[in-house]
Amino acid sequence: QVQLVESGGGLVQAGGSLRVSCAASGPISGIKTMGWYRQAPEKERELVARIDGIGNTIYVDSVKGRFTISRNNAKNTVNLQMNSLEPEDTAVYYCFIDGPFGTRYWGQGTQVTVSS
Question: b/e string for 28-37 if b means 16 or more Cβ within 10 A?
């Protein structure tokens, strides 16, 4: 079965940086879009960034210029480099991948906490 394993979350002070990574394993090929959502306490899950198979990216306005998404198609990994972190970035970050037949797979989530 397809599994997504995330790593790299943690606690950082405002203004600092973190990098979260996600690796997909199992019987999957032809991955289309990869990306990250986040969910803060008492808030709805929101799309943070996504990247398609040829590198086109989309970011939520609040992270533009601070976060960078990248992927490695050979390794089925997607990364999110987060700079100039703000307390408002505190959330559980979930990676996802879209398979070739419209199936979306999710990671288990990794906590990112930014202290002020």
Answer: beebebbbbb
pLDDT tens-digit readout, 44-67:
999 999 999 999 999 999 999 999
Residue 54 amino acid letter: I
Q: How many residues in total does the chain contain?
A: 116
Q: Which residues of 61-100 are buried (b: 16+ CB within 10 A; e: fewer)?
A: eebeeebbbbbeeeebbbbbebeebeeebbbbbbbbbbbe
Per-residue pLDDT tens over the stretch 60-92? 999 999 999 999 999 999 999 999 999 999 999
What is the number of H-type helices and E-type strands within the chain? 0, 11
